[in-house]
From TrEMBL:
Residues 25-297 form the Amidohydrolase-related domain. It comes from Chthoniobacter flavus Ellin428. It holds the Pfam family Amidohydro_2. The keyword Transcription regulation does not apply. This is Amidohydrolase 2.
Length: 298
């Protein structure tokens, strides 16, 4: 009876805590192909931007599978811009493993149809570049208003690549669209360009007031000391856990960038799994898979 009940809960998305070793979910990975003829780069990008030259599903599996990661959220790569084909083809080849976060042009008249088509192909969210000057335009942008509305209507997630100075504007937008689910990428890049400042962490924690806001604890290689074991990020993660609860935090490697300059995939996941004693076993289950499964795979 218990097994049947758990199976039923899993089918409805109510049981999202991972239980098996390979149930970890990486909430943030980029893939791209070396074939720039088939998948041309967007204007303004060149081969110099493709570092490494390619990062395919095969390359990813060599990293994630030995570390117990069985499912992955793919984030559209910047140099493909609105051409989501490689993302969609990767999902189609591994439909049980991948879900996608695409990039769309919110100014286009066919935005609704584009969103509908992409979601039918495994896309569960949209990446939005969210620098302060961009966020300042959102309340007056018809396209952005539509995107935030469509996301709420279709149970999709807007993944914001933002920074500390933009957080007040992001907060206002989340308050204006309280039913839109938002995931803040990479701790809002706190500690990337400057030391980790309490004021910035305070602002990120205030976003927890908006109940559909999540944070990706990701891109450890780029923040704070920028080197393993990354335990200097522990106090910020502790505060976020207390503000949001672990069920609104999700770990992401930000591969392949996590693999550069001697950094490793294993060290990224180990920070959450092994190195922060304030995280409970249940916290780790949520952060290493349960939250991302609930948001992107349910």
């Amino acid at each position: 009876m218990r097994s049947a009940t758990l199976a039923a809960l899993a089918q409805t998305g109510c049981s999202t805590l991972p239980s098996a070793h390979h149930d970890h979910v990486d909430a943030h990975v980029h893939l791209w192909s070396s074939d720039t003829h088939r998948y041309p780069l967007a204007p303004g990008f060149g081969l110099k931007d493709m570092v490494p030259r390619s990062f395919t599903a095969h390359d990813l599996f060599a990293q994630c599978r030995p570390n117990g990661v069985g499912r992955v959220v793919l984030i559209q790569m910047s140099f493909y811009h609105f051409d989501n084909r490689y993302l969609l083809e990767s999902i189609a080849h591994h439909p049980d493993v991948f879900r996608g976060v695409a990039i769309v042009d919110e100014t286009k008249a066919n935005l609704h149809d584009t969103v509908k088509t992409l979601t039918s192909q495994g896309v569960r969210g949209f990446r939005v570049y969210s620098e302060p000057e961009q966020v300042a335009t959102w309340p007056h942008s018809a396209g952005m208003k539509k995107l935030w509305t469509y996301a709420a209507d279709r149970n999709l997630t807007l993944c914001l690549l933002t920074e500390p100075d933009a957080l007040p504007g992001v907060h206002r937008m989340c308050q204006a669209y309280p039913h839109t689910r938002v995931a803040i990428d990479h701790f809002a890049r706190i500690g990337m360009k400057s030391p980790i400042r309490r004021k910035s962490v305070d602002e990120l924690c205030r976003l927890a007031e908006c109940p559909h806001t999540y944070v990706k604890t990701s891109a450890f290689y780029a923040l704070g000391a920028k080197k393993a074991p990354y335990t200097d990020l522990g106090p910020m993660i502790h505060r976020l856990r207390d503000a949001y609860g672990a069920s609104r935090l999700m770990w992401g490697s930000d591969c392949p960038f996590q693999l550069q300059d001697g950094q490793t995939y294993a060290n990224s996941i180990a920070l959450i799994r092994d190195r922060l004693p304030f995280l409970t076993a249940e916290d780790k289950q949520w952060m290493l898979g349960g939250t991302a499964a609930k948001v992107f795979f349910a």
